């Protein structure tokens, strides 16, 4: 650590008092040569100078001494200059900072300025630049300290109100008793574009916007002297600058008593103080007003599409209902939901999904009539209010127009895709007389359209409410099914057609519904996916699968691999691996006996998360299969990154095989991919001998389907395995 004190001119020693009053500067730089040169340069001035080559030394000096100015290098041996600036800020150290640095980028410079640096000098700096910047900083500091002293004196004396003069960021003015300017500061001239001579002696009305003159009359003629004086009155003032906008000012006017600044004079004849003028301070709040307008706009509009949001839509629908009631006229509410939008997000990503929503909003907006309101409700849902509706046929025609405008392909930077929409319509007053009723019933009608194939529109009918209630009942009964043990696991064997032996099985869920009987997974799992029930159902399925394997192993059966289908929601939660490990440990099951089946689309929802989760499962010993391969939208490059053991050919491709001598290139391609990557291969949905012969002839030797076995209960599955084991000796003898 070096301390240096600049000397006075030769032969002119300075006293201790004078020395202590000199500005104290801290030089912080890790390069001794640069430190010495700056020290020598500043040493020519009457400054107290302290130097530090490390951040710790600088912090120690800042803790024990008061500094007016810190010249700081950002790159120090032990810490960054940003940390020193944070130290200064956190401890409220009253010191200005000039950053001198050469090896940092723009982000570091911006970071320093954001931390309150007075200036940023890039090395190498000229002598004049350093001296000028230091001098300006100290001069600014002296001015600030002087202003603080003056302000303190004004407060303590209580004879003058605090107001800023020409250097103030606010307009300061005084008026005579006729409302003519007697003083304006420089800030008024800068903001409004008038020279001082153009305003002095002129009436205040030359500046005030015409619409605000009446309000300004009370403010600019304020005579009161206490709390009743005008406060925070907003006025718009005219600007003379070419191309400038009107500016909005928050104006405070107070009348000054004799003890303040003498704006009253004694009238001896009447024995009282006579008013002769006012003064005021006006702050430019134009930027704040614009910001408030933006905030207000964003509070009622969707940022992505710039459409009204749910809040504004409900407000406008409420007004439309009031008008419709007054005129005894119908209106319609449309609820629009894009079909298969989730697939776009999953395949192309959310950025492309957002672009699609913007283009859809633009097309729908072009189909509106004057007075209609289109709003985005959230996600891929839009709502429209159609006031002054002639009849239902008019609403149907408008809905047809919306469907037609969506039929043309959308271009998302080279990706062309088609989307359709499902539109539900509710009409006032038949389908509801309140905002919530109409929206709810239009929503129900929209879901009814989806259930009938999508890409269409439909009007609400009271019978749809029963269907909606049935869905709620289905959700409640599905939740109860878990509690009341109504779910069962069935197993569809997988057969090695060379040996004829069962090598594994896929676990398939069934719901033994009290009223509807045995339901296949396809009848209730999609509903479970949409209603947040897949996680508890998957937990149940994992427990049952491990329990059944435990029973099979205890009965002395051969090692058998059972597979279960894994919902994307399970991987998204990130805790499936822990649940799998706990279930295997609880039932003493070897991980190699479990295989999880995922769809291709899991690979593209969040690839990195999926890879991490599946890698953990593979490290545990659990194998992974891609189910329904070839029907998804993932890139084949993911097969190299994912720890896949098995590919399952989807039954839609197998179903196409009608001739064992035919040519089915998709199946051949999938078989080639599996062979090239060294993966196991299973064909699903094999139902005919021709399909089996074609698959076997082309290299797929493990099959699953009705040709061999239907899904069966655990007891029946054990029977199949036992018969399979009994047939093996006979086959060997043959």
UniProtKB/TrEMBL annotation:
This is GGDEF domain-containing protein. GO terms for biological process: phosphorelay signal transduction system; regulation of DNA-templated transcription. Residues 471-725 form the EAL domain. SUPFAM superfamilies: CheY-like (SSF52172), EAL domain-like (SSF141868), Nucleotide cyclase (SSF55073), PYP-like sensor domain (PAS domain) (SSF55785). It comes from Massilia glaciei. Residues 157-228 form the PAS domain. Gene3D superfamilies: 3.30.70.270, 3.40.50.2300, EAL domain, PAS domain. Residues 24-138 form the Response regulatory domain. The lineage of its organism: Bacteria, Pseudomonadati, Pseudomonadota, Betaproteobacteria, Burkholderiales. PROSITE patterns: EAL (PS50883), GGDEF (PS50887), PAS (PS50112), RESPONSE_REGULATORY (PS50110). Residues 329-462 form the GGDEF domain. Pfam families: EAL, GGDEF, PAS, Response_reg. InterPro entries: Biofilm_reg_signaling, CheY-like_superfamily, EAL_dom, EAL_sf, GGDEF_dom, Nucleotide_cyclase, PAS, PAS-like_dom_sf.
